[in-house]
Amino acid sequence: MKRQRVVYFFAIVLLIGAWCLVLHHTPKIDAKPEPMSNASVLPDPVTIPKPEPTRMIVEATAYCQGSITSRGSAPRAGRTVSVDPKIIPYGSHLVINGQDGFVAEDCGNSWSDEMNDDGTYYRHIRGHRIDIYFSSEEEAYAWGRKTVVVEILN
Question: From the CB of residue 128, how many other CB atoms can be counted at a distance below 10 Å?
């Protein structure tokens, strides 16, 4: 029993000694850091190149009817474009024939002039085709159907 007390005593003394060493060699919190010299310690900043926009040639038609896009916003002329989201993701910023400001916000209307193999009409834009929203029927008919270059910026 006496031997066990002696072992406990020395174990406690060792623990207290180790704790004192740790406290003694730990830097003080209020110690001030050494001032940095004017020499550049940090490396030069890295410029991350922007990815090249994806370019594709698509067939573009026009539409002017509809009160809400498939993303839940009101369509706006000069901005809203219907796309196949498998080809051009929703929210993508587009440049069409060099004109900026378009956004992929819709996937088409409930009618289409393109037919499936079974003779039924598509309900949405499919493949490499877009549908640009115009504010009037006259502007939409004036646009007609064109082949355009689309750049996807993001």
Answer: 14
Spatial separation of the C-alpha atoms in residues 102 and 53, rounded to whole Å:
14
Specify the CATH number of the domain 54-152.
2.40.40.10
Structure tokens at 47: 């410029």
Residue 63 in contact with residue 130, Cβ under 8 Å?
no
pLDDT tens profile 1-53: 677 777 777 777 777 777 666 666 656 666 566 666 655 566 677 887 877 88
